[in-house]
Amino acid sequence: MELLPRSPAEFGSARYWDRFFRQRGQRPFEWYGAFPELCPVLHKYVRPRDKVLVVGCGNSELSEQMYDMGMCEDIVNIDISDAVIRQMRERSASTRPKMSYLLMDMLQMDFPEAHFQVVLDKGTLDALLTDEEEATLGKVDQMFAEISRVLQVGGRYLCVSLAQAHVLKKAVEYFSQEGWVVRVHQVASSGDKQQFVLPVFMYVMTKFRKIPGSAAQILEICPEEQDKPMRVESTEQLVAAVKDRQHYALLCSQISKTPCREQVSLDLCDKESGKPRYTLHVVDSPSVKPSRDNHFAIFIIPQGRETEWLFGTEEGRRQLAASAGVGRLLTVALHREQHYEGMAGIQAELSGKVMELAPPGLPARQQQVPFLSVGGDIGVRAVRHCGSSPLSGEFVVEDVKGDGTCYFRRLIFLQNRNVVQSEARLLAPTPLPGQKKRRKDKKKASPTEPPGAIDKSYLCCEHHKAMVAGLCLLGGPDALPGELAVLVVGLGGGSLPLFVHDYFSQARVAVVEIDPSMLEVATRWFGFSQGDRMQVHVSDGLDYVAKLAAEAPAQYDAVMFDVDSKDLTVGMSCPPPAFVEKPFLQKVKTILRPEGVFVLNLVCRDARLKESVLATLRDVFPLLYVRRIQGEVNEILFCQPGPAGRRDPAELGARARALEGALRQPGRPWDSSYALADVLQAVHIL
Q: Where is the Methyltransferase domain (predicted)?
């Protein structure tokens, strides 16, 4: 501890460094790694005939090793500590005749202009730039000016640093403004226990003549796992890219020592585009007692299934890790913008990286970590359409393979890419009459070939099934709904209004959708169509309902809200808050008939906000039922204008069975998962 400075300012004091090196003696002090770690990068920028200046050399062995390995011999080392210069002269005088050590201040060097091809700095800038006080920044500017003066055009300033944000920003801004090319390398670690948890970087500043009037900057970063540099547009982007790598190193250090109390999430990005390629979750299972081979495993989530409860929620991933029986499970989600070469390709790509996230105490015999998946494959995902709109932002329509042999079409809003906005099951292609079946020896259809038509009879979303079941609340004591007027706010892919239209043959359905792009998507990709009993109104739902309340009250038997919120900062993603404010809910009540029902899909993670919404609903609607969707945040609320519609659970079950029987018509598909009575068994009166 006595070797540490009493204040950061002492890092610039010759007296401090004299005392430091006298107390340390002959033992080399290697700032930020030794020659083996730095050598691969140094080899790129130091040539045997270069004249090299090492500023703030200390008693590091770096110059000696560069000399001994034949990297270069014409090396001049300078330092402000007389003690270390005398020590290093004695060490190299007889064995390295072409290398010299000089007592000199790098802020005022005696060398002529353009004297060196390389200036090498290992930790000296970090030691000098300890704060951002005016005096300190003045010294740094002086240091940079002197380095610039003694370097030839085309020469390189190589600075080894921990790349603290203020240090990196200062260096990059100074030299890029001078017209130099700036590249930052991450230095590969040796794998041994390092003095610093943070990774080490080398700034490579290449001197060019400044072109008057030119504001162009060339800024690049070269991560340790690749040779090809990546161009960035600004100093801020370069600092952010370095910070990402520092955070990753800290994360790896932390989770290699202790189990994760909470699940850790991170993205691994594509080297070329910089876009996320894999999303990883680190899930530790304290209840699993590690044995010989169950410390660590990797689970590849099949494409398109990352939104399922088992893979897309913390509780689901905990259950998955427990069922896998491993102490640490690393789940890996694949991104739709990326191409993957099967399970073997993914394993080859991830094998080195995942070991950096291994749990503490991983036995040496388990260096081959098992890769797991569902069915042993990576699933199928085919993007059918990419689009954007001013209201919904960027979105994609994609086909994915579900569990088993079924395929599904999904609408995803990319601002919330882990949520399926709309989903429909695809029918398997059927041969035309007289058409021969495909011979077995013929080439099978590619997963990216156009699939079959939309299965309009199937409701993929559990909350849609509950919303349909709520229609049994309509009608008198012994009557089921016949002629119906239904208003649906929020179109999405159109599966909910389509189902009501097709299965309630006397229903007239009006749909309100604010985004005309969604009407195009539903029509083109989800089999939606308008007709005599189905009309879409492109309008803001708030305005449409307000206009109806003023001009045509009490005209709907059912009003259904299934509309998402674009504001991700609110703890309620469905509906937007304005749709559950009391004045608007009173307008919704106005357009309902006395025996009607208002059905609301509520997705609210904020407990206080949800309680406030429920209180407002109770103020407006005397009768309120709720159906919670298992494994999801969704809650379906059934609201009725008068208490006369109150029914006990037995009556609700009987009406649901009767409604289901009426909907099951000969020749009309019906899925057994629609058990409406089972849906309503879980309904509670609030």
A: 50-171
In angstroms, rounded to a whole number, what is the distance separating the alpha carbons of residues 512 and 534? 11
DSSP string, 93-137: TTT-TT-EEEE--TTS--PPTT-EEEEEEESHHHHH-SS--HHHH
Note the pLDDT of residue 474.
81
In this predicted model, what pLDDT tens digit does every residue of 91-150 receive, in sequence order?
A: 888 899 999 999 999 999 999 999 999 999 998 998 899 889 999 999 999 999 999 999
CA 413 and chain centroid, separation: 14
Q: What are phi and psi of 426, to 5 degrees?
A: -100, 135
Q: Could you give the CA distance from residue 34 to residue 155 in angstroms, rounded to a whole number? A: 23
Q: Are 138 and 176 in contact (CB under 8 A)?
A: no
CB of 422 closer than 8 Å to CB of 410: yes
Of how many residues is the chain composed? 686
Handedness of CA 127, 131, 134, 135 (dihedral sign): negative
Asked if 48 and 80 touch (Cβ cutoff 8 Å), the reply is no
Local structure of residue 71 (DSSP, 8 states): S
Residue 181: is it exposed, middle or buried by C-beta count within 10 angstroms (0-12/13-18/19+)? middle
Q: Which residue ranges make up each domain of the chain?
A: 8-236, 258-359+366-372, 462-665+672-685
Residues of the chain falling short of pLDDT 50: 1-12, 16-18, 20-21, 24-25, 27-29, 191-194, 432-435, 437-450
Name the CATH topology of 462-665+672-685: Rossmann fold (3.40.50)
Six-digit token string for 36 = 């083996």
pLDDT for 15-64, tens place per residue? Answer: 544 454 455 445 444 557 778 889 999 999 999 999 999 999 888 889 99
The pTM for the full model equals 0.69
CA-to-CA distance for 270 and 649, rounded, in angstroms? 54
Query: Cα(666)–Cα(24) distance, rounded to whole angstroms?
Result: 92
Contacting residues for 243 by C-beta, under 8 A, at least 6 apart? 165
Give the Cα separation of 398 and 385 in Å (integer): 7
Of the candidates 412, 403, 399, the one whose C-alpha atom is nearest the C-alpha of residue 445 is 399
Q: Prior bond to 583 cis, omega within 30? A: no
CATH of 258-359+366-372, one of 3.20.20, 3.30.390, 2.60.34, 3.40.50: 3.40.50
* Residue 40 neighbours by CB under 8 Å, 6+ apart: 188
Number of helical (H) and strand (E) elements in the chain, helices listed first = 19, 27
**Nearest Cα to Cα of residue 186 among 172, 203, 173, 164:** 203
Structure tokens at 142: 């002086």
CA 345/CA 300 separation, integer angstroms: 12
> CA 63 to CA 99: how far, in whole Å?
9
Q: What angle do CA 517, 520, 523 make, to 5 degrees?
A: 150
Report how far residue 645's alpha carbon sits from residue 637's, in angstroms, rounded to the nearest whole number. 15
Q: Which CATH superfamily is domain 8-236 in?
A: Vaccinia Virus protein VP39 (3.40.50.150)
Residue 152: burial class (beta carbons within 10 Å; 0-12, 13-18, 19+): middle
Identify the helix (H) or strand (E) that includes residue 679.
helix 676-681
Distance separating alpha carbons of residues 137 and 131, to the nearest angstrom:
8
Q: Which residues are within 8 A (CB) of 588 and not within 5 positions of it... i.e. 6 or more apart?
A: 545, 549, 559, 598, 620
DSSP 178-228: TT-EEEEEEPPP-SSPPS-SSPPEEEEEE--PPPTT-----EEEE-TT-SS
Angle, helices 582-591/607-620, rounded to nearest 10 degrees? 40
Q: How many CB atoms lie within 10 A of CB 213?
A: 5
